[in-house]
Amino acid sequence: MATNNATLGYFTPKDVEAPFGGGTGFFKRGSTPVLAFDRISPFPDARFAGVLPRGVNAGYTATTGVKVIVAWSSANAASIGSVVWGASFQLDGQTDKPVPYTDNFPAFNAANEIQVTTAANPTTAGGMNYSTLSVPLAAIQNGQTTAPVAGDHYRLRIRRIDENAADTMLGVAYLHSVELQDY
């Protein structure tokens, strides 16, 4: 059995799914690649693809769900406030398009999106912040009839939910990485 909090996947801005991973802006902040989420972007999400790993020590246990840890920073010290992040999954295996299409992923379902609000680090200009979203099995399943298991192919969508009143940071939120952990 995998241990609790075993890392299931790790994504950086360079891993974003093409084309444009949903459209969020890819930038370099110094020499560090980041995805920029601002309040006026017409492309508010980033998408990553992966496989739930197998293995005795690092495999996916399918017992509770997946923790999605978003590492992000604010544009500057003046960007004080909170950001609301959302995470949702698509599992391969159920088509959302009519024949003859072969896309086996269902559409992202807003009802299965998990949200968390995290305050920007007010003491350090561009200081790192970590937002943890605990996604239960039912939300990963995303309306399909079978629960996710090790070896399943998935897509993960991360978005800044600026239409939520709890998102009060006016500046840009830079996504640095996304880690998935078993729990």
Question: What do you see in this structure?
Answer:
- This protein is mainly β and 183 residues long.
- 3% of the residues lie in helices and 42% in strands.
- The chain has one helix and ten strands.
- The radius of gyration is 16 Å and the shape is globular.
Protein structure class: mainly beta
For the terminal residues, how far apart are their CA atoms?
Answer: 12 Å
Q: What letter string, H or E per element, gives the SSE order?
A: EEEEEEEEHEE
Which regions have little confidence, pLDDT < 50, spanning 5+ residues?
Answer: 94-98
* Largest pleated sheet: 6 strands, antiparallel
What is the percent of helical residues? Answer: under 10%
Strand proportion:
35-45%
At a glance:
The protein has 183 residues and is mostly beta strands. Helix content is 3%, strand content 42%.
How does the SSE layout of this entry go?
Blueprint: E1 7-11, E2 25-29, E3 32-37, E4 45-51, E5 65-74, E6 82-91, E7 114-119, E8 128-136, H1 137-141, E9 153-160, E10 173-182
Antiparallel strand pairs: 1-10, 2-3, 3-10, 4-9, 5-8, 5-10, 6-7, 6-9
Describe the structure using short key phrases.
about 180 residues; mainly beta; six-stranded antiparallel β-sheet; four-stranded antiparallel β-sheet; about 5% helix
